[in-house]
């Protein structure tokens, strides 16, 4: 092979990445196999990329479906305040549920926050944790049934130990800003060492609004929260 031809061949190989391998008999015949090899690699790579994208789409669809189901369930729970718990055998093949329904009961008994907390617990409940407008309505309905229409009643909120960090003591759950809140305008203001919550301090449509109050002061009563369980129908 002439020098100029050899130079052109090497330049072409560098440009296209073609590797030339000498094979065959002693007559020195040459065959270029790298192009076919590259085609196979390209096909495999395209197939892998296609499969990868299909798997990603499949996972994404399953995730979106779960999120939609979870969103619907949350909206249902917020509307009806239903606590849903899966029960049944360990393998999870049976789709049976039990539903926890909340009940708010006011005890018209003089007590401070700690006494009310103990009394609710001794009755297999806890001081009311109001987590939705529906639950707020339950509390206000209970207030309307009391003998004292102007009574002030303790609920289960407190920021004892961490000033300004309110939590529901019965649930051990932080009452963060993005969750349901129903404070009276300007509350909580922590006037006079106020670290517990009550309802009933105002009249009219504001009667159910929350107010921060002194924990050791005795009030007209307290709101206890109870859950009743609806067992699933074995026939379902």
Automatic annotation (TrEMBL):
Keywords: Disulfide bond. SMART domains: CLECT. Coiled coil: none annotated. It holds the Pfam family Lectin_C. InterPro entries: C-type_lectin-like (IPR001304), C-type_lectin-like/link_sf (IPR016186), C-type_lectin/snaclec_domain (IPR050111), C-type_lectin_CS (IPR018378), CTDL_fold (IPR016187). This is C-type lectin domain-containing protein. PROSITE patterns: C_TYPE_LECTIN_1 (PS00615), C_TYPE_LECTIN_2 (PS50041). Residues 99-215 form the C-type lectin domain. Gene3D superfamilies: Mannose-Binding Protein A, subunit A. PANTHER family: MANNOSE, PHOSPHOLIPASE, LECTIN RECEPTOR RELATED.
């Amino acid at each position: 092979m002439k020098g100029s031809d050899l130079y052109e061949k090497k330049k072409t190989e560098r440009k296209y990445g073609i590797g030339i391998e000498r094979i065959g008999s002693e007559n020195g015949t040459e065959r270029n196999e790298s192009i076919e090899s590259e085609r196979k690699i390209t096909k495999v790579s395209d197939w892998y990329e296609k499969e990868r994208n299909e798997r990603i789409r499949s996972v994404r669809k399953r995730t979106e479906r779960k999120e939609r189901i979870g969103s619907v369930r949350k909206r249902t729970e917020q509307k009806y305040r239903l606590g849903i718990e899966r029960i049944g055998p360990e393998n999870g093949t049976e789709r049976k549920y039990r539903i926890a329904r909340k009940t708010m009961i006011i005890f018209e008994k003089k007590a401070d926050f700690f006494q009310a907390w103990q009394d609710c617990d001794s009755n297999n409940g806890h001081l009311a944790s109001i987590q939705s407008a529906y639950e707020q309505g339950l509390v206000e309905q209970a207030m309307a049934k009391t003998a004292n229409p102007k009574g002030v009643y303790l609920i289960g909120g407190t920021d004892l130990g961490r000033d300004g960090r309110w939590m529901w003591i019965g649930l051990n759950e932080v009452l963060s800003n993005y969750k349901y809140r129903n404070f009276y305008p300007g509350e909580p203001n922590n006037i006079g060492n106020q670290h517990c919550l009550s309802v009933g301090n105002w009249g009219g449509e504001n009667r159910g609004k929350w107010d921060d109050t002194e924990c050791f002061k005795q009030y007209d009563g307290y709101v206890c929260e109870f859950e009743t369980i609806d067992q699933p129908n074995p026939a379902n």
